[in-house]
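A brief tutorial aside. Many learners find it easier to grasp structure tokens once they have seen a single protein encoded end to end. The record that follows does exactly this for Pyruvate dehydrogenase E1 component subunit beta. Read the sequence first, then the structure, and try to relate runs of similar tokens to stretches of the chain.
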Amino acid sequence: MALPCKLRFAQKILPGAFVRRCLSTSSPASGQMTVRDALNSALDEEIARDEKVLLMGEEVALYDGAYKVSKGLHAKYGDKRVIDTPITEMGFAGIATGAAMAGLRPVCEFMTFNFAMQAIDQVINSAGKTFYMSAGAVPVPIVFRGPNGAAMGVAAQHSQCFAAWYGHVPGLKVISPFSSEDCKGLLKAAIRDDNPVVFLENELLYGRPFEMSEEAMQDDFVLPIGKAKIEKEGSHVTLVAHSMGVLRSLEAAQILAEDGISCEVINLRTIRPMDEAAIFNSVKKTNHLVTVEGGWPQFGVGAEIIAKVMESDAFDYLDAPVVRVTGADVPMPYAASLEQASLPQVSNIVNSVKRILNVGAEQGQMKS
């Protein structure tokens, strides 16, 4: 099998496991769907539903996508709806933005959001501000999507989370889904939205299967943008996370439950607009808060959550300072051991929770 251009280059300089992981697929059990297939399903349904929807990006057509998210779409819809582009992010992001201004609904794929830095002017200045600057006359219904955050073994220039970057910008909606249901329902919502949407997927979750409800398997399944989901209810501490951080939080909650600690895990789903009410209501119930993210700590998503809580009446309900669990404040190292040390681990969440609850080995189990 021939590899796409950027993966051919990656194969020369990166471990073989990285390339194999990019192309890997899994066979989910009945009632389950992988994140990759959920995204593919959303794209398929929306291209079929609306003739104005098109997908464009590097390797999305003939190769079925670098991560196989667009598998089968070019064969089904042809060159006018699924378009391979040259390796020029600024160029094809600009074309897609112009197409959106002209009335189409393009989905612009970045092979990784690290490459979106080449097109950041198009995303922020052209797409993000035109509706405002035109006094509402020119909507820009475009979705910028692709893998975000740290992968494995790809070092500093390919291991960055852009949630805080784009979440900082008025005029953009920013989505960071976790599960297959999130990905399908929110991508469909993003494509239908009249605003520019930055849709931050996670490479390490593409092949992971999740349970899908019967409702989520239907063509008309759409989730609301700006609404968080309580993945697990709890009473002692609130864990707020997005993307891979949700998985780590759920794993930590399971470990903490063995010590009698009940964690409420909130999946943000949307970074901008953020579901403040879901966070505040949970804090008022648990009186403790830990935020979890893969990005850097300074000016991060967790910092924004803490500021919102401090400025609200939920602050009066806190019984301990809020703690952030984040990536290390360093460029991502290449060495595997250092890479793991730079990313938030389940143990970091567990230790942070026990610290704010003042629960350690010597204290025994948490009292209900």
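Self-check: Confidence is low (pLDDT under 50) at residues 1-25. If you spotted this yourself, you are ready for the next section.
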